[in-house]
Amino acid sequence: MRAIPVTPVALLGAAALALSAPAVTAYAATTGGPSTSGSGYTVTPSVVAPGGQVTLAAKGCSTTATASSAVFDTVTIPTAGSVRATVDWDAKPGAAYQVTFTCNTSPSSTATVNLTISAATSTPTASSTSSAVSTASPAGVQGGLGGSIDSVNSGKIVAGTALAVAAAAGTVFMVRRRKESRSH
Question: What's the pTM value of the predicted model, to 2 decimals?
Answer without folding.
Answer: 0.46
